[in-house]
Structure formats: structure tokens, C-alpha cells
Amino acid sequence: MEAKIISLVHKVTTDKEDSGSSESVVYINGAWQFAYALLWQHQQLSKFEISRSKELISQFFHKAPDKYDAFLSFCKRVAIAERYITAGILSAPPMPSIWLNPNYEHGISYTLPLLSDLKEKREKVPGYMNQIFIVAEHYCHFVLHPSTKIFRRCRRQLLSIKAYGMLQHFYNAALQSHYLRN
After folding, report:
1. Residues 90-100: what's their mean pLDDT?
2. Is the residue at 3 inside a domain?
3. pTM, entire model
4. Among 17-21, 37-41, 140-144, whose mean pLDDT is lowest?
5. What residues make up the domain containing 103?
6. Which of the chain's ends, N or C, has fewer CB atoms near its CB within 10 Å?
7. What is the rounded distance in angstroms from the CA atom of residue 124 to the CA atom of residue 117?
8. Contact in structure between 76 and 140 (CB atoms under 8 Å)
């Protein structure tokens, strides 16, 4: 009698057909680590939950014509969600595999109009909610090209606008992406 091993863990595809390249995997992992650090850092998540969440993020990137722009947009949207949660406007997010599901109306999908509104408001009020853009842009650069220069520049810019909470989130996300890698 032959034994069969069945894997119950979803795997993020890495073949060029589905994800485009190993660069896509960097974006997927970077996006996951940013979301985890900002929204679920105090939760212990199963490998299955993490894998499923990365699978949902890979769908987000699969549809995007420009992977870097999608990565940057994703990070801005997560940072917006974190600000709204901290301000009490949004409730704490459910499990990542629910929040990241494009069909869940109170998750990542909800943040798209928030980002559009924020961009519109920034045209009228330059610098409004600048910390969201600073942390997202620097984190994206840091994931692709980790350096103390990027780290220090982000720190300096966030300190100059007294965005201490977002600075802590940047630290957490940078450590998560560079050292912890879950």
C-alpha cells in the first residue's frame, strides 16, 4: 500500500508564468511583512494563515501592470488603514486572510477610495498626512535596496514632522522585512 502526503498549506507561486519573476516574490513578501508589522504585529499567526495571506497579496500584484507602483500603493493603503484604526474610524482588522481578500468590503478593498481621497486632499493641502507617503516610499525602497541611508532618511523625515508612531511602524516593518521574514 502506497502512502500519500497531502499538503494543506497554500503556496505562493513563484514560477515566471504566474508571478512574473522572483522580483514579484520580493514584492509579495515585502507587502506581507509591511501589512503584518502595521496591522497584526501582536498576533501569532499560523503558517497556513501567512501563506494564504501571501497568496491573496500575489493576486493583488498579478493584476498590476507595474509591480513597483502596486507595491507602493499597497503600502500606502495599509498605512492609511493603520491610521484609521488608530484614530478609531475603522475597527481592528480581522485575520489577514479575510482583510486581504478583495471581496471583503471592509479590508484592503475599502482603502482604495481612501487613498484616492487622500491624494485629492493633498493636492489642496500639500503635506497633508505626509507620514503615510514617507513611510510607504521609504519602506518600498528599503525592501528592494536595504541600506542605512534609506533607513536614516526615513527616520529624519518622520522625526521632522513628529510622526513618532509611524516611525515606530517603519522600524517594525524594516526589521520584519530584513531580519524576521515570516
Report:
1. 94
2. no
3. 0.85
4. 17-21
5. 20-180
6. N
7. 11
8. no
HSE on the CB side for 131, CA within 13 Å?
18
Contacts 24+ apart (CB under 8 A), 64-73: 67/20, 67/23, 67/24, 67/27, 68/27, 68/140, 68/144, 70/27, 71/27, 71/30, 71/31, 71/140, 71/143, 72/136, 72/137, 72/140, 73/115
Say if residue 28 is exposed, middle or buried (CB neighbours under 10 Å; 0-12, 13-18, 19+).
buried
25 exposed, middle or buried (CB, 10 Å; 0-12, 13-18, 19+)?
middle
Asked whether residue 159 is domain-assigned, the answer is yes
Number of other CB atoms surrounding residue 112 within 10 Å:
13
Q: Please, which residues have CB within 8 angstroms of residue 106's CB and are 6 or more apart in sequence?
A: 90, 91, 99
100, 108 Cβ separation under 8 angstroms = yes
Domains of the chain: total: 1
In a domain, 4, yes or no: no
15 part of a folded domain? no
**Which tens digit of pLDDT belongs to each residue from 30-85?**
999 999 999 999 999 999 999 999 999 999 998 889 999 999 999 999 999 999 99
d(CA 182, CA 177): 8
